[in-house]
Amino acid sequence: MATHPKDSSAREAAEQIAISALGFIASDPALMPRFLAISGIEASQIRQAAAEPGFFAGVIQFIMAHEPTLQAFCEATNTPPADVGAALRALPFGDDRFDIST
Questions:
Q1: Which string of b and e fits 12-37 if b means at least 16 CB within 10 Å?
Q2: Angle, to 10 degrees, between the axis of helix 5-26 and the axis of helix 67-77?
Q3: What residue spans define the domains of the chain?
Q4: What confidence tens digit (pLDDT) does each residue in 51-83 have?
């Protein structure tokens, strides 16, 4: 089954948001250990994990699961929250099912 060019560009844009989100997480001394603990990934395995389908969706789900983190990411990267949600839906294994944390 061929990928429609629009689908491909949406996925590429979604991956860029996820990469920005991962950079945001990695630069925060409180978020990074939490992300690693929740994901079960060791810091040394992130590059390898990023090649797996669903990894980028997991990064965005992590950001979206905590409203203050989502707000901080959006402010830091000038990304509208709606774009973060759209990115999640454009990625493999991305859907709106995630656990909300407080």
A1: eebbebbebbbebbeebeebbeebbe
A2: 100
A3: 19-90
A4: 998 999 999 999 999 999 999 999 999 999 999
